[in-house]
Specification:
The chain is α+β, with helices and mostly antiparallel strands. Helix content is about 15%, strand content about 15%. Strands 1-2 form a two-stranded antiparallel ribbon. The longest helix has 13 residues, at about 25-35.
Length: about 80
């Protein structure tokens, strides 16, 4: 995150437009995508993530991307 960030809504901090993570939707989407490698998510998904929170594994034509939750706060300590 050297040049950008899209904050999630947290408490009274509502800047940005990213939705709060909904665990039920996340599980349902994961289940759908795991049903078949041909299943896709309609529309574009753009993910900007700090490299410390992502793992990429490639096996032939298949690429597996794992993104860990970023639990950092919006507190700025100068």
């Amino acid at each position: 995150m050297q040049w950008c960030d899209v904050p999630r809504a947290k408490g009274d901090y509502m800047a940005g437009y990213q939705r709060v993570l909904n665990e039920k939707r996340s599980v349902a989407l994961t289940q759908y995508l795991n049903l078949s490698p041909k299943n896709i998510v309609p529309g574009a998904i753009i993910v900007a993530i700090d490299q410390d929170y992502i793992d990429v594994k490639q096996s032939g034509d298949l690429v597996e991307i794992t993104i860990r939750e970023d639990n950092r706060t919006f507190d700025v300590n100068y």
